[in-house]
Write a structure and sequence with these properties.
CATH topology of the largest domain: TIM Barrel
Helix content: 25-40%
Radius of gyration: 22 Å
Bound molecules: iron/sulfur cluster
Largest sheet: 7 strands, parallel
Distance between the termini: 44 Å
C-alpha cells in the first residue's frame, strides 16, 4: 500500500517536528508499505505541497495527524480544526483519497473530531500497532467513519526514520529535536486527556539508538516528548543508565511529575545532560506529601545545578484566595527558576472536571468560550481567578509568570 502522511500543524511558537508521524511511518515501512510524509508546517501554499506530493507518489490513501485541537491557552487561543478540515476535504475531493486521522488531538472527543473533520475513519490513542488494520479497512471499506482504539505494545517498534523532515529548518526556527520513551500515563489528573491511559515503555536501547541517529548528523539538543518522563522510577533509572553508558554528549530538557524520583535518578539526569526539568503540578485535592515531594525534588535538582521550572494549574472549583496564596508560598519556598501559573482550565467532554463543573450552576457561570458547543471541540474554559485577580495574588513576585498572554515553551525561555 502507498500511504501519504500529512502534517497539517502550522503553529510556529515554536514549530514542532511531527515525530508521531515519523514513528507511524517507520512502523508502516517496517511492514513493507511505501510511505512519505508531507510536512505543511512551513508551506506558504499547502494546496501546492499536497498536489505535488500526490502527483509524485500517487498514494492509495492519506493519513492526517491532529496533534492538538487548539493551543489550549485562553488568552492567545488558536483553533486548528477548521484548517485541518479544509485539508481533509481537499485530499478527499481534489485527489479522491480516503483519509484516516490520528494523533493526540483525536482523544479530545474521537467521534466529535471525526465528524467535525468529516474524515473517513480515525485512530484514537497510539497508532503504531493499529494503523495497519485501520488503513486496510478504510481503503477497502470507504467512508466507514470507524474509530479504532490504538494500543501500544512496544513490539512493533521499528527504528525511527525522519522521512525527509527538514530538521535544519525546524531547529533554525526555535524547535528542538524530540523523542519519547513511553506512551500513556497512570496518574488520574481530572483535567488531563492522558489520565489513566495504558502505559507501555519502549526498549531503552532503541531510544538510545534513536538519539544517536540524530547526534550522528550533528544534533545535540533534545526535548523529551513524554507527558512526564518519570512514569516509572525503575524505567527512568534504566534509561538514564543506558544513555550515560552510551557516552552521547547531549543536552536535553524534560517534563516530570513530583513523584517517582530519588537522588540516583536526579544524578543520572544531570550526568546525561539534562539542563532543565519542568515539573507539571496542579492544586486539585493534593495531600501534604505532594507538596513535600515537590520541595525535595526542587532542592535535589538545584543542588546538582539543573534548572527547574514549574507549570502550575490552579483555580479549581471551590478553591479560595487563601488556599491559592498558600500554594504560591509553598511553590516559592525552594525557589525554582520559574513558575508558570495557569488558571484557565480547557474543558473536554470526557474529563471528570467537566462533569463536576456542569453539575453546579454557580460553576457553570464561570465558563467562557464556545459554551454553546456540547461536544467541547470548540474551546471552552473554566476560570475561577481571572488574569487581574491572579496578578493581585501573585503581587508582583517576578518568580511567577501568568501563562497565556505570551506564547512560548520553557525550553525556549530558560537556557
Ligand atoms: S501526570 Fe501529567 S500526563 Fe499524567 S494525567 Fe497528570 S497531567 Fe496528565
Amino acid at each position: 500500500m502507498k500511504v501519504l502522511l500529512i502534517n497539517p500543524n502550522r503553529y510556529k511558537s515554536p514549530p514542532v517536528p511531527p515525530i508521531g508521524l515519523e514513528y507511524i511511518a517507520s512502523s508502516l515501512s517496517g511492514k513493507g508499505h511505501t510511505v512519505e510524509i508531507t510536512d505543511l508546517c512551513f508551506a506558504e501554499d499547502w494546496r501546492q505541497y499536497i498536489d505535488r506530493s500526490v502527483e509524485d507518489m500517487k498514494p492509495d490513501i492519506a493519513g492526517v495527524t491532529v496533534r492538538n485541537v487548539d493551543t489550549v491557552l485562553y488568552h492567545t487561543n488558536e483553533f486548528f480544526l477548521d484548517e485541518i478540515k479544509e485539508i481533509v476535504h481537499y485530499l478527499q475531493v481534489k485527489h479522491g483519497l480516503r483519509v484516516l486521522i490520528g494523533g493526540a488531538g483525536v482523544s479530545a472527543n474521537p467521534a466529535g473530531v471525526l465528524e467535525y473533520l468529516n474524515a473517513d475513519s480515525a485512530v484514537q490513542g497510539p497508532a503504531e500497532d493499529t494503523i495497519h488494520r485501520a488503513l486496510a479497512e478504510t481503503l477497502n471499506g470507504g467512508h466507514i467513519r470507524k474509530i479504532y482504539h490504538g494500543k501500544y505494545s512496544g513490539r512493533a517498534l521499528c527504528p525511527r526514520r525522519t522521512f525527509g523532515i527538514d530538521y535544519g529548518r525546524y531547529c533554525g526556527s526555535g524547535a528542538v529535536i524530540g523523542f519519547e520513551t513511553h506512551k500513556g500515563c497512570s496518574s488520574s489528573c481530572v483535567f488531563c486527556l492522558e489520565a489513566n491511559s495504558r502505559v507501555a515503555f519502549k526498549p531503552v536501547q532503541n531510544v538510545v539508538e534513536e538519539i544517536r541517529s540524530f547526534v550522528d548528523i550533528g544534533h545535540t539538543h533534545f526535548h523529551l516528548c513524554d507527558s512526564e518522563f518519570n512514569e516509572s522510577l525503575d524505567y527512568s533509572v534504566e534509561f538514564c543508565t543506558a544513555l550515560k553508558k552510551s557516552g552521547l554528549d547531549i543536552r536535553w530538557a524534560v517534563y516530570m511529575k513530583p513523584a517517582e524520583f530519588n537522588k540516583t535518578l536526579l544524578r543520572l539526569l544531570k550526568d546525561t545532560g539534562v539542563y532543565l526539568i519542568t515539573l507539571s503540578m496542579d492544586s486539585w485535592k493534593k495531600c501534604d506529601l505532594y507538596w513535600t515531594d515537590y520541595e525535595k525534588f526542587i532542592f535535589g535538582a538545584k543542588s546538582l545545578g539543573i534548572k527547574t521550572a514549574v507549570d502550575f494549574l490552579t483555580g479549581f472549583p471551590y478553591e479560595t484566595d487563601i488556599e491559592i496564596r498558600g500554594y504560591f508560598d509553598t511553590l516559592r519556598r525552594p525557589l525554582p527558576d520559574s513558575v508558570g501559573v495557569n488558571t484557565y482550565i480547557r474543558l473536554y467532554k470526557k474529563l471528570q472536571i467537566t462533569e463536576i463543573i456542569l453539575k453546579d450552576a454557580a460553576l457553570r457561570a464561570r465558563l467562557s468560550g464556545r459554551t454553546d458547543d456540547a461536544t467541547f471541540i470548540q474551546p471552552v474554559f473554566f476560570n475561577r481567578f481571572d488574569t487581574q485577580k491572579l496578578g493581585e495574588l501573585i503581587a508582583g513576585d517576578p518568580l511567577f509568570r501568568i501563562e497565556g498572554p505570551e506564547k512560548g515553551v520553557n525550553y525556549g525561555r530558560i537556557k
